[in-house]
Amino acid sequence: MNAIKIYNMKFGCSLLIQSRGVLGFNKFPNLNRNLHISAPRFLGAINQTLKPFSVSSPNWGRSRVFPVTCCNSSKPNYVADYSTTLESRVNDKNFESVYVQGGLDETGESAGRAESEAEKDAWRLLREAVVTYCGNPVGTLAANNPGDKVPLNYDQVFIRDFVPSALAFLLKGEGEIVRNFLLHTLQLQSWEKTVDCYSPGQGLMPASFKIRTVPLDDTKVEEVLDPDFGESAIGRVAPVDSGLWWIILLRAYSKITGDFAMQERVDIQTGIKLILNLCLSDGFDMFPSLLVTDGSCMIDRRMGIHGHPLEIQSLFYSALRCAREMLALDEGSKNLVRTINNRLSALSFHIREYYWIDMKKINEIYRYKTEEYSTEAINKFNIYPEQIPHWLMDWIPEEGGYMIGNLQPAHMDFRFFTLGNIWSIVSSLSTPKQNNSILNLIESKWDDLVGHMPLKIVYPALELEEWRIITGSDPKNTPWSYHNGGSWPTLLWQFTLACIKMGRIELARKAVNLAENRLYADHWPEYYDTRSGRFIGKQSRLYQTWTIAGFLTSKMLLENPEKASLLFWEEDYDLLEICVCALSKTGRKLCARGAAKSQILV
Length: 602
Ligand code: GLC
Hints:
It is a single chain. The chain is of the alpha+beta class and 602 residues long. It contains 22 helices and 19 strands. The strands form seven sheets. Strands 1, 2, 3, 6, 9, 10 and 11 form a seven-stranded antiparallel β-sheet that branches. Strands 4-5 form a two-stranded antiparallel ribbon. The protein has a two-stranded antiparallel ribbon with strand order 7-8. A hairpin with a 3-residue loop joins strand 1 and strand 2. The N and C termini lie far apart (58 Å). Mean pLDDT is 81; it is low at 1-67 and 71-108. The structure holds alpha-D-glucopyranose. The site of alpha-D-glucopyranose (GLC) has 6 residues, from helix 4.
């Protein structure tokens, strides 16, 4: 059964929805969404002459109807121009407040300081990377190198890559592109099935989307938004982090622009709930952390991070905190908020207690007994001490510590993953003491984690047999390259944010100063190779947008540190009081949190 529905979308675009029976089941994710759209946005008239279209492509495996379309060359008269309506414009007053309160003048220039050549170049390139849809800015290309003959999928707008672009624009007082991005990606949320007739759960956000121009007839072309949920990605990985970033960006947008009406919209509230339902639904898991496959986040290729990787846990934690803040409190959301609180509490305990390592903890693990059956076990995950890697014994400093990359039964991944650690600081997933310790470790291991270019995505690299087995002999992820120990300048903005939060602004300045001239001279590479990040990455793109935007965001945060507080979270002491162990009511003593409280409190 194929049924095509046409709804209006803001910005004068139409939304095409194909509902289709899949193995006897019907799915109407976006239809449900549109039933919630408030009356003024709904255009009753459906143009009977507009033909729904489908495009067959060998890559997509089957014919597919695009979800979001708009006429480019000649706009049909039934489509209202919303560009001047209330819905399509961010309240300009909000931007005034950004200019007035911040250190930016009304043109968005940094007040009292001339922009460096690198900044000027970066702004020019960032603006050139902007993608428009129906004449409105909706995102930025992953990379925009005019000389690049084979852009692969870097000509798409990636959800995660757009976050630093969004922040750069927001801090500059330009909210429209971010608002458009949030609304358009919402319309793409899990609307279509993907690999070999298997549907992802409702609520999944795409990894990326692309604007395609499709001929309607001889005279007209139409622009369509084409999402990728991983069905075209290498390894067909689901982008778990996309929805989490979407929620985090939504909160940042409201905080910086002051446009809180946006998050109150029914379609936005539904979007948040769909993402949460997907993350909070019951499975077979025994841990409060999110169980994912390898490659489901920034590291989107096989790197041995399946299970419960730290990056996903810290994004999950902050997305839950954002959602709790933004969900409208009513009868319908009461249970959800309770579930969020319980999960936040359990998750922070789990990570703080079991992912944290420092000199003392490693020594404890080194002396662990194994094969302990009972709820009283100290070595709960049955970690064999022999798995403590040799590099770590020499590497761990006397002062400082970090969160390990992953925890599974009989497996601790001791590698240092930068994004997960930095985002634990930003979101307060780790304690204030742990936050400081992580920054101490980065400072004392500067040559290893920063070297010539901030920052290593992971330390150390997998080599030899480990590389062969864990990456599956991936020629792009060879030791000290790309995801396997490459240096990713986009991580600068998150590092800057963490440093500002912890009052270590000098550390961030040191990193930004190190990067500035080099990035500019090297044409903004995606990543650098070698142990100390000396060479531009083997297959690194140039003019990589999140490198550019990450640099600009870092600069603006350093200039306006007070703005950073809109983007991080302080410790939530109430959460520490919640004990979710309902089992204690049954008299079974399974909860170890009482005993461990000294650890999780500051
Ligand atoms: C690479 C990165 C991924 C990024 C994409 C686009 O695949 O691993 O994190 O989103 O490039 O820049």
